Amino acid sequence: MGVSLCVKNIKACQIGNLEVDFILCDPTGEYAYLQVARTIYGEEDENGVDRTQEREYRSLEQIQDNYPKYILSLDYLLQRRSGILHKNIVDLMSKNGGLTGLN
User: Fold this and answer.
1) Backbone φ/ψ region at 7: left (φ over 0), alpha (ψ -120 to 50), beta
2) What is the percentage of the chain residues whose pLDDT exceeds 90?
3) Domain ranges within the chain, ordered by starting residue
4) DSSP 8-state code for residue 65
5) What are 28-77's pLDDT values in tens digits?
6) Is residue 75 within 8 Å of residue 35, measured between CB atoms?
């Protein structure tokens, strides 16, 4: 999906007590969900689970449709989990034409 940004079509979304940072919509009505974080690597809990990763992925994993879901961060160690793509925001904005390079 190439995302054409239109300010009126970008919004935050609440899912129960979880939040998705942005929902992007292109002119054809296709959607993409976007979480933005400085880093998704933080401190681990007593079970070795990274709390920051869990927070960033949890809300996107709760969305039950098939539209694309992304996490953008400054991290260079990228991962993919539950079909959610993790991308480096600096690379995305400088090399791929900005948010239109999400696909």
Assistant:
1) alpha
2) 27
3) 7-101
4) S
5) 778 888 999 999 998 888 888 888 899 899 989 988 889 999 999 999 98
6) no
**Residue 87, token pair as written in the block:** 């991308």
Residue written as token pair 């300010």: 7
* Whole-prediction pTM: 0.78
User: pLDDT value at position 6?
Assistant: 44
- For 13, the token pair is 């979304």
Beta strands in the chain (DSSP E): 11-15, 18-25, 31-36, 69-73, 80-81, 84-88
Count helices and strands in the chain by DSSP H and E runs: 2, 6
